[in-house]
Design goal:
single chain, alpha/beta, Rossmann fold, 2 domains, 6-stranded parallel β-sheet, 3-stranded parallel β-sheet, 11 helices, 11 strands, globular, binds NADPH dihydro-nicotinamide-adenine-dinucleotide phosphate
């Protein structure tokens, strides 16, 4: 039976270290959070970020912009925050009004204030092994793997999902640790090869968003299984892996909820502290 790889205890340890680092900064770090329009979709995230920031001694500034804002106005607002020396990091809350292209406007955040670690300049630094600001979900996955004590060097790691926010940057971080990385995606599934790849994974990371995509009996005995997926089934939240069957075969498995999720906000705050140290 697998050991549970829970996010909260790992997050708590990192938060203790962050508190120490924040204590040695000259001033309290400031995170500016931009919300535009209807806030229902991002309300829970903002609340959780506010709470974490407060506990760590970070100032959280919430900027509510109106639903009708256009891209040029939003870019101007971001540029104002970029040039404000009192602000260390910027985050844009999703969803945005339909007239705003997130990919376009997020590139206007100064790379040194990119709290989400998604600016092309920061993603590019991962390729050169020089990143200190990392995309939050991939960074959370790396922390969970570290927690198992397993060395990634030469391990067969299979990542399912190749999105820009999870699978692609995560694959680069894993390569940096000399893992042998296989990245699976819709093409792999359509070619009927997903099971074959998953079966060889010593470490399996799944970030797709489809409940039961990964069958429990595909899991290699003794594998580490990190399930990033979030799927609502009625009033239940489940991941992408069949948990009950998978936990009988794996050595470590993340619960959903309670695995990757609790760590991502902590990674956001870690980026902010890194940003504050760099500025
Ligand atoms: P995306 O929809 O952007 O990406 C999903 C990926 O899965 C794509 O690469 C897609 O390929 C691939 N895919 C779709 N269907 C299949 C299939 N049948 N077999 C193999 N691959 C497939 O999602 P995200 O990366 O943003 O998120 C993935 C999941 O992780 C979601 O459930 C999301 O809610 C969750 N999540 C959880 C977080 C947390 O903190 N716990 C944070 C971020 C995400 P293609 O694009 O080619 O179709």
């Amino acid at each position: 039976m697998a050991r549970l790889l829970e996010g909260k205890p790992v997050a708590d340890k990192i938060k203790e270290e962050l508190k120490r680092q924040i204590g040695s900064l000259k001033k309290k770090p400031v995170l500016a959070s931009i919300q535009a329009g209807d806030n229902a979709g991002s309300a829970a995230y903002v609340k959780s970020q506010q709470k974490t920031a407060q506990n760590l001694g970070i100032e959280y500034q919430l900027h509510n912009l109106n639903q009708g804002i256009n891209e040029a106005e939003l870019i101007k607002f971001i540029q104002k925050l970029n040039s404000d020396n009192t602000i260390n990091g910027i985050i844009i809350q999703m969803p945005l009004p339909s007239q705003i292209d997130y990919k376009k406007i997020s590139q206007f955040i100064a790379p040194e204030k990119d709290a989400e670690g998604m600016h092309p300049a920061n993603i590019g630094k991962i390729v050169f092994g020089k990143a200190n600001i990392l995309p939050c979900t991939p960074a959370a996955v790396m922390e969970l793997i570290k927690e198992t004590g397993v060395d990634l060097y030469g391990k067969e790691v299979v990542v399912v999902g190749h999105s820009e926010i999870v699978g692609k940057p995560l694959s680069l971080l894993l390569l940096e640790k000399f893992a042998t990385v296989t990245v699976c995606h819709i093409g792999t599934s359509k070619a009927g090869k997903l099971e074959e790849h998953v079966r060889k994974a010593e470490i399996l990371i799944v970030a797709v968003g489809k409940a039961s995509l990964i069958k429990g009996d595909w899991i290699k005995e003794g594998a580490i299984v990190i399930d990033v997926g979030i799927n609502r089934l009625g009033d239940k939240i489940v991941g992408d892996v069949e948990f009950e069957a998978a936990e009988k075969r794996a050595a470590w498995i993340t619960p959903v909820p309670g695995g990757v999720g609790p760590l991502t906000v902590t990674m956001l705050m870690r980026n902010l502290v890194e940003a504050a140290k760099l500025q």
